[in-house]
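re: ur question from yesterday

yeah so i grabbed the chain u mentioned. its 395 aa long if i counted rite. heres the sequnce exactly as i have it in my notes:
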Amino acid sequence: MNTNRHYGMDWLRIGAFALLIFYHIGMYFVPWGWHVKTPHPMDWVQIPMMATNSWRLPLLFLVSGYASAALFAKLGGVGPFLRSRSARLLIPLAFGMIAIIPVQPWIELVTQHDYAGGFLHFWSRDYFGFGTLEGIVLPTWQHLWFVVYLFVYTLLAAMVLAAIPERARVAIADGAARLLAGWGMLFVPLAAWLTILFAFPGYRETHALFDDGPNHLHYLVPFFIGWLLRVRPALFDTVARCWPVAAVVAIAAYGYVAWALWAAPGEGPPPEGVVTLFMAIRLVQGWAAIVALVGVADRFANRDHPGRAMLAEAVFPFYIIHQTIIVLVGYWLLLGGVGPLASFLVLVAATIAGCWAFYLGGRRVGWLRPLIGLQRKARDRPTALCQPSANISGG
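ran it thru and got these structure tokens back, copy pasting raw so excuse formatting
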């Protein structure tokens, strides 16, 4: 393994989570179901949203796999790796579910199901009921489902590493790297995705962990490839050869996706069990875009910057708080009858300001740091901000 830090993957991760924030702001305006909605959703918003819809989450799992492999190599064993991941993921998850998330289902119940109780009544009486209320499972992890899935995939990786001798692990990694060599990086993962699509036609994401099997298979593909990119960095040479073609394929596929949405903006999902051309092209767009983005990050962004370390550390706190800010501010905008353009500008400004306040305030308070996903501050570790363990995707 090349132990040099790949700054391009850091920037890719920072950009992916920044994009996630803007995507969730867009959820306020798009016709798709969400926790709080503008009174007049706009069909055209679907078109820019679908530019990233097929690859934004798989890309997060890919950079998570890469950084998880880096952390495992740094800690040098399954035990330390699992202890680090458990503390850095499960503590913020519990804190988020108790203190950060509850306002989201309350607002959804109030605005879409005529729930009459105030927030304190909801939090003390209904939220911890361990059941459903108007179809909403309570308590809930909402957008923190990504943390749950990442921990499970981390646990799975640790189990595999513990069960397979090192020589066998090396042979498996070498074999997988050979499979992805050449144009395999573009075609093999895409073939896996298409196989999952046709094996489970029409499956819907639930983010509920135990009934989301096809979705797990879908996300484990990029997670494994991200891990492999770290342990077999020569694969970046493969990416370098094929990413320009992948970029062209991604743009062309998105052209079809955008045209399909423009031609039939209000068309609902197909019948259960039906695989459409739109679904397949969307997967082509998704994987080709990921290969292109990794190639761009490797070619043009593999360099450090004075602000990188802070941005890398800020990602997890931003992720924890951003959706609650969006839903809460969106609720106030809904009550105030604010128009779409003003609502968008307010949501962007409030979310960015709120995320920075949450991060900058929490990082200064020792006991808050683990709750918001930051490493405990050690007086004798002045370079802690630069460690890969200081982020959600790595450890």
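noticed a couple things. DSSP finds 14 helices and two strands in the chain. also The first strand starts at residue 131 and ends at 133.
anyway ttyl
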